[in-house]
Amino acid sequence: MTFFICMPFMASASDISAANTRIEQALLTEDINTHLTQPTEYLGYPLGEWHLRHDQINHYLQLLASESDRVSLDSAGYSEERREQITAVITSEKNQKNLADIIEYRSNIKYGTMQTNHTNQNPLVVWLAYSIHGDEASGAHAALALSHYLAAANTPWVKELLDDTVILLTPTQNPDGFDRFSNWANNNKGQVIVTDNNHREHNQDWPGGRFNHYLADLNRDWLFLRHPASQGRVAFFHKWQPHYVGDFHEMWHQQSYFFQPGVPDRVNPLTKPANQALSNELAAFHRQALDEVKQVYFSGQMFDDFFYGKGSTYPDINGAVGILFEQASSRGQAQDSPNGVVTLAESIDNQFATSISSLKGAHALRKKLMKYQTDFFSSNIKRYREGKQSGRLVKAHGGAKHINELVSILAQHKISVKYLNTVIEDDDINFTPQDSVFIPDSQPQHDLLEALFDKRTEFKDETFYDISTWNFESALSLSLIKKAKPSAKYLSDKPNGKVTKATYPKDSVALVIDWQQAAAAPLLQQLLQQGVIVKYAQKPFSLNANIANIANRTAEKPQTSKQAIKFVAGSLQIPLKQQNFTAIELAEIVATLAQQHQVDVVASASSHAVTGMDLGSDDFIKVKPVTPLIITGADTNASETGQMWHYLDKTLGIATTMVNTERLVSLDLSAYSHIFMADGPYHLISDATSRKLGQYVTEGGTIVAQKRALVWLNKRNILNSEPKTSRELNNLFITSGMDYGDQSKLKARQSIGGAIVALKLDATHPVAFGLPNPLPVMKNREISFNLTSTPFIVAAKYENDLLISGYLANEYQRAFANTPAMIVETKGKGKIVALADNLLFRNIWLGSEKVYANALYFVPSQ
Asked: Do residues 48 and 71 lie in contact, with contact meaning Cβ atoms separated by under 8 Å?
């Protein structure tokens, strides 16, 4: 069955328009149920003539489900902008009637509890998912055509397929970005198709449609689950536990068509060899499908199967086989390329072709796919049943908030934990019920657990399509004992007690919050918004205090006692004598927020400190309200800008202004306490704006900037410290006598795709308050600082032995060791906080995100 015709080298508007109906025309040659509405009939124009919107896709799937007994709908939840992620469930009428039992069987298969009373409880499950990058739209269009074809075709192979298989079709995995792109493409489409690469249609305004609402790449969020669309998608995966996942993308328009397997030496070592063997067998079906339509393609190059946080690799560590497809992109209707004109119509055809080959290949190999999945989980199920209690004893530096974040992520990945019902001391670490859990090794998701905590620094191939490491121990700043064996009597399946609301003794003079607690920062912001006076400590201190907090979760009532308690620098003091509140009112406000954020609060009956300064000391500085601004626009890194926005908005709860670079010149910058600059070249900022930013700092403003923003600030004489960039750092590598063929290996060594390194903090500096020391951070750009005579304060430097996990060339390790990583520079009345790295990396780097809170609340007071 061949449906598709390659487009000619050049395409006129009429050629392109005609090509959009090819799939529908092909349906006329087969035995088709003509009572079902075709996409063209629903839309009122040929599929692909206009870019679809997400609501059109959902409405069509709903219509198809109402017309066909083969189609039902399932949901993977909602996007940030409340667009529903609908999936068409397509299978035989008999299977549709048994879906509840099939779902129960599938969702429990990893646990070995798969018995039901139905004989058809175990069909093959194939999930085809499209357009997780919103501007890679051809897949979503192909999915619409495919949904109709599978519902309508009565050919023997389709009937046999549907008898044996449940097919899940998810046209759009990023509804917010998809609609942003479709509106752009449609708004810039003319009657005459323009293939010129310079046309607006092919060059989206910032931030483009690739990203979601918070400008995150959702195809990097499968492990981290920072966004609701990802959370819904992973829940959907484990509900159905598919055998095969097709992940459909677009790539650069200069390319042809790619399908996995990827580069053999870049497969994650935790991926089982049988997985790659099946990928190779499936590739034969894709080759045949594309050869038939004379579409050139490639495999085994460029892309890899290493990072498990992507849609094509997450299945590989979860008992399925994931396959990545990449189609050259038209980024609109049609675009010139070295291979001829790339059209949306041709792209839809190709994605349809490999969708069909996916179904044919998976069906032909169904016994092997089922056996692979059974074998994948069998050893873990056996281990699980044996119930061995060896595993990771984990403590979060950030306290309850971060341990709860970890437990939430693990639960969504179907990884179970045990809660502590008492304090456990191991290797000089106190693991408490409030900030610690035990993660057993013996559980069905053992392989994924190993992947989340994997540490390695040596690799077969030093090239990575994405990051080389993502270790959760570093990301969340955890302390752990890897092979701990706590007694079962110290563990529980449920959290210890409920969070209670504290009451503080009437003789209290102040309430004190240790700044090491991650949730102390959002609590502080809410206090400031209510006009409460809060002070922070410039130095460590300790108090004899009456404890009245939520630490004892097993108690029905808060307990009080007297003991010496140590507080780190940065810890917060709320004086109970304030002009606008009574002591009772303040205590109620703090108690409510403390319960909400699960923050421990200490009530002190005296201003006298056992060690350090008394509570009335000038070393307690009043925290000022903050009004941050983030610079946005085409010359900023959209993902990192979005991560700043996500942290300030969703974590801290601050009203955050975002302004594109070209508008800065017209603003009164004195209205903003802080200006944040993510990575980016900033080449569009005018000289007038540069002078204005320099004046802003001189007059008392604070700039928090990272990575390439530092280069721009230095060139404009706003930052005196001199960053080293890739051009200078590349000179570290010896190239004399190098063969021409070795250039790609050199480029790989010179690239820092993502390695975890350790920073040594100056614990006395406000930027470092409350942070673990040393501090693990993700380094993913070639940048560092020159050591010059310019006066600045080094808040953090790279450790001498800095590499924790991942790949970082020895040349970089030697060059970065003991050099500054965080600098705070004074300029006039203001300050610049200069960060060599992104300490919010993908909003999963919870251990270091407090640097930005410190810069907000503490740096302006210095």
From this structure: no
Q: How far apart are CA 213 and CA 54, in angstroms?
A: 14
Q: Are strands 342-343 and 391-396 parallel, antiparallel or unpaired?
A: unpaired
The beta strand positions in 191-231, using DSSP E, are: none
- pLDDT tens for each residue of 260-295: 999 999 999 999 999 999 999 999 999 999 999 899
Quote the tokens at residue 128.
């085809």
- Identify the DSSP state of 853: H
Q: Identify the helix (H) or strand (E) that includes residue 245.
A: strand 244-251
Q: What angle do CA 300, 303, 309 make, to 5 degrees?
A: 130
Residue recorded with tokens 């007297």: 562
- Residue 695's contacts (CB-CB under 8 Å, 6 or more residues apart) are none
Q: 317 near 279, Cβ under 8 Å? A: no
Cβ 242 vs Cβ 372: under 8 Å: no
Rounded distance between C-alpha atoms, residue 621 and residue 677, angstroms: 26
DSSP, res 124: E
Q: Is 314 in a helix, a strand, or coil?
A: helix
Closest CA to 165 of 206, 194, 123, 193: 123
Tell me which amino acid residue 344 is: L
| List of long-range contacts for 103-106, beta carbons under 8 Å, 24+ apart | 103/239, 103/240, 106/239, 106/240, 106/241, 106/242
Secondary element (H or E) of residue 301: none
Determine the Cα–Cα distance for residues 127 and 238; give it in Å rounded to an integer.
Answer: 12
Residue 571: half-sphere exposure toward Cβ, Cα within 13 Å? 25
Determine if the peptide bond prior to 261 is cis (ω within 30°): yes
What are 586-621's pLDDT values in tens digits? Answer: 999 999 999 999 999 999 999 999 999 999 999 999
Is the pTM for the entire model greater than 0.70? yes
Q: Which amino acid is at 458?
A: E
The answer for residues whose C-beta is within 8 angstroms of residue 256's C-beta and 6 or more apart is 295, 296, 297, 298, 328, 339
Instruction: Categorize the per-residue pLDDT at 12 as very low, low, confident or very high, splitting at 50, 70 and 90.
Output: very low
- How many CA atoms lie less than 13 Å away from 49 in the CB half-sphere? 14
- Return the minimum-mean-pLDDT range out of 164-178, 355-369, 375-389, 647-661: 375-389
Q: Where are the alpha helices (DSSP H) in 530-659?
A: 583-597, 638-646
Beta strands, E only, 124-176: 124-130, 165-170
Q: What's the mean pLDDT in 114-140? A: 83
Q: Do residues 477 and 435 touch, judged by C-beta distance below 8 A?
A: no
Location of structure tokens 């939840």? 77
pLDDT tens digits for range 525-575: 999 999 999 999 999 999 985 443 433 333 333 444 556 899 999 999 999
Contacts of 506 (CB under 8 A, 6+ apart): 583
* Pair 333, 189: CB distance under 8 Å: yes
Q: How far apart are CA 25 and CA 28, in angstroms?
A: 5
> What's the burial of 44, exposed, middle or buried (CB within 10 Å: 0-12/13-18/19+)?
exposed
117 compared with 744, residue with greater pLDDT: 744
Please work out, in degrees rounded to the nearest 5, the angle formed at the alpha carbon of residue 649 by the alpha carbons of 648 and 651. Answer: 70
Residue among 301, 323, 282, 292 at smallest CA distance from 128: 323
What tokens were used for 740? 């021409």
Tokens 């692979």 -> residue? 372
Chain-centre distance of CA 148, in angstroms?
Answer: 33
DSSP at 859: G
- Sign of the C-alpha dihedral computed for residues 259, 262, 268 and 274 taken in this order: positive
719 within 8 A of 710, measured Cβ to Cβ: yes
- Cis preceding-peptide flag for 315 (omega within 30 of 0): no
The residue behind tokens 């079902």 is 36
Give the DSSP per-residue string, 16-45: HHHHTTHHHHHHTTS-B-TTSPPHHHHHTS
Task: With both helix axes pointing from N to C terminus, report the angle between 344-364 and 138-152 in degrees, rounded to the nearest 10.
Answer: 50
pLDDT tens for residues 681-736?
Answer: 999 999 999 999 999 999 999 999 999 999 999 999 999 999 988 888 888 888 77
